[in-house]
Amino acid sequence: MPPNNTEGHPHGSFKPPRKLLLRSAGLLWRYKKTAIIAGGAAYCYYRVQQWKFNKEINNKIIDGTVLTWSITNGSIIETDTATSGYGPLGWILDSLIKPAHQIRMLDALVALEMAAVDPRVKSLIVRVHNGDDTDAKSMSTGLGIAQTQELRQALERFQQRKEEQHGSGKGKSYFYIDSFDDQQTYYLASAFSDIVVQPTGYLPLTGISATQMYFKDLADKLGIHMHVEARKDYKSVVAPFSQSSMPEKHRENMMDILESLNSTFIQDIASSRKATITANLQAADDDQPVTAAEVMRKALEEGPISAPYAEKLGLITAQDYIFDVKSIIGFRKLMSLSNYSKRRGEEHRASVTAVAAKDIGSAEFLNILKQDKSSEYKLVPTVGIVYLVGEIERHGTNSAERIAQHLLDAARDTSVDAIVLRIDSGGGDVIASDTIGAAVDYIQSNFYKPVVASYGNVSASGAYYASASCMRIFASPGTITGSIGVAAMRPIITSKLLDYIGTNVEELYVINNKSNSSFTEPQGGELERYRNLVDNIYEDFTKRVAKGRNYSNEDVEKVAQGRVFTGIQALSNGLVDEMGSFTRAIESAAEMGSMVLLFTKLNAAYRKALFDKRKLIQSLVAMGQLNSVDDFEKLIKDDSSEVEEKATNNASTSDDDLESDKKTVSDFSDKLDISSSDSEKTQKTFKADITRNIKLKEFPQQTGLSKWVFDSINKRGDTTDDDFGFSTTKSARISAQDAAKSVISAALRDEINALLSGDSLRTLEKSMEKGRSVRTESDNTRFK
Length: 784
Fold this sequence. Notes:
Mean pLDDT: 76
Shape: globular
Low-confidence stretches: 82-87, 638-655, 660-684, 704-708, 710-723, 725-783
GO molecular function: serine-type peptidase activity
Number of helices: 29
Keywords: Hydrolase, Protease, Serine protease
CATH class of one domain: Alpha Beta
Number of strands: 26
GO biological process, one term: proteolysis
CATH superfamily of one domain: 2-enoyl-CoA Hydratase, Chain A, domain 1
CATH topology of one domain: 2-enoyl-CoA Hydratase, Chain A, domain 1
Helix content: 40-55%
C-alpha cells in the first residue's frame, strides 16, 4: 500500500468526501432552523417567480391569438347590480352568485372594437351553452333585440377589419351551438361568418310576435273595478286591467312595431348571410331569381326548420360538434374575451393617444394653450358613464335621486368633459323621471357639459321623459321608445268581493275627501281633480319633449298620445338623432366633449390672467393708486376707464391680451351652443375613436380601502381561457379560479353601483297596491 502521505498534493491536505458530507450534515443539523427558513424562502421565491412568468405568458396577447367567448343566459349584462339591505356581506354574497364569465355590454363592445383593430387577434369563436346553471331550460343569450343589434354591428366591423388585415375571405368568426332554442340567439349568430350546429339541431324561426294578457273579466269576477285615466289614445299600459281585449289603437300601434321589427330582422339576417344563401341558390340551379330576403321570409313561414335544411338554405355553415370546432384552432393561443378586455384595457390606459389641440380648434386656441405648460398642447377627452336601468323609482337603491346624484358627480368632476346616459328602462314614476330630466337640464345649462343618451332595448315613457333634453340621442333599430303619455290606474274594491269573502268595511272621514279610498269610485270634484292631475302631467311631458327635441306644440302631438315606436320609426320622426350603438354614443359625446375640454383650458387661461389682474388691483389700492377694490369691476367692463389706464401702466400683462383672451372664450362659447340639439353648432373637427383617444369614467365610482384590497386580489393569479373545454395550458384546474377572479372583477368594478334591473310588471303591481299613484311607463307587451 502506498504511504498515507498527502504532501505535494496540489490542493493541500486531502479529506475524503465522506467526512465532508458528515460535517455538512452536522452543520445543517446544528443550524437546522436557519436552514429550513432559508430553504423555504428560496422555494417561495422560486415559486413566485415561476407564477409571475406563467402569468405573463398566459396573459400576453401574441400574434395569432384566437378570442373565445362563452355565452350563457345572463352572462352579458348592462351594468353590475348590488344587493341592498344586507350591507357589505349581502353585496359580497350577491357577487359570488354571478356567472363566472359575466361581462358588461360596454366591456364586450369595446373589447370587440379593440380586437377589430388589433392585428394580433386572428379570429373569434363563440359558444352558447347552459354553463353551470343546471336549472336552465334553454340555451339563450338572454339579450333583447337592441342589445343583439349592437353586438351584431360590432361583429360586422370585426370581420371587416380582419379581412383588411389578413386578406379577403380570412375575416373569420365562428359561432357554435348544439341547437337554437330561440330565434333571438340565431339573430346574433347570423352576424358570424361561420355558424356550426349539431346535425340534430334546429332553428325556431317564426318571425317577431307579441303576446298580451287581459284581466278585466277576472277582475270583474273578483269584484274589483279599475278606474283608469290615460293620455291619450295609444297609452295602453293599463288596458290589460281595464279591457277584455286589445284596444284598436293599441292593436294598430303594435302591428306597426311588429312589422318594423320583423322587417329589420329579415333584412339584417339576409344581409349577413347573403353570400352563403346566394351560393346555395346558384347550386340549386333554380330558374326563378330569389333574393336572400325572400329566402329568409320563406324560412320564417316554414319554421322551425332542421339543421340540414338550414344548411341547404345557407342560413348556417356546417353541421358539426364542438369537438370538430376545436380543430379550427390548431396551435393558436386562446384567450377569453373577458380576459382580453382586461389586458387591452390596461394597454389602452397606458397608451391612449393624446389629441393635439390644433385638431380641435384654431391657431388662436393653440396660442392660449401654450401658456399652460402642463397640457403640453395635448388634450384627451374623458367621457363619464351613468346608467339608468330598470324601473324609475323615487325610493330605493335605484332611486331617481341617486341617479341624478351620479349625473351631478360626473358634471362636477373636472376630468369629465361629456356624459353618456345609458338607458334600458320602460319608465316609472313621473316625479322620479322629472328629477332625472331636471338634472340633465341643470348640467347642460350650468356645467356646459353635453349629455348624450344611449338607448338599449327600451327607453320609453318616463325614460324618454328623463332624456328628451339630452344633446343627442342614439338608439338601435330595435329599440322600443316613445310612449309619450300618461296612464293612471286606481283599483276600486266593490261590495261583490267583500260579500264573497264575508267582509264589511266602514270608512270614517273628518274631511269630506275620499281621494285615498280604495272602496269608493271617484266622483264629482274629486274625479275632476284626478283628471286635471293627469292632464297637467301630460302637458308637462309634451312641453319637455317639445323643448328638448325642438318641436312645435302641433308637431309634438303627432309623436305623443302614448304611441310607441321602434328606433327606426323614432329616427324618422325626430325622437332620436342617430342609429348607433353604445360605443358610437360615447364617441359622439367625446367629439362634443373635446370642445368642452378645450373651452375649460381656455377658460382656465382667462381666469388665471384675471386672477393676476385682481392681485394687481389689490396692490394698487394698497399703494393708494386706486380708491377701492370695487374699481376692479370697471377694469373689466369699461374699456376706456381711467382705472384701466392706471392698471395698464403697472401690469405685466397687457389688457389687450386679456381682452383678446376674453373675446376668444366668448366666441368659443357661442360655437358650443349647448342648448341646441343641432350637432353642426358644435363646430367639432376632432374625430373620436374609442379604441385610441377616449378615456372612460363610470359613476358611481369605487372608493376606499375595499377598492384597493379587491383590486389587489383581482391582479393576482393567472387566468385560464379554457371557455370551450379546449385544453390549452392547464386544463386540470380551470373553472374554480376563473370563476372567483371573474366574479370579484365584475363585482368590484363598480363598488357602489346600486342599479337594479327591475321588471316592468313591478310597476303595475305597485300601482295596484297604491292605486292613487300616477305613473308614466311603457307598455308591458312581451316581444318574442
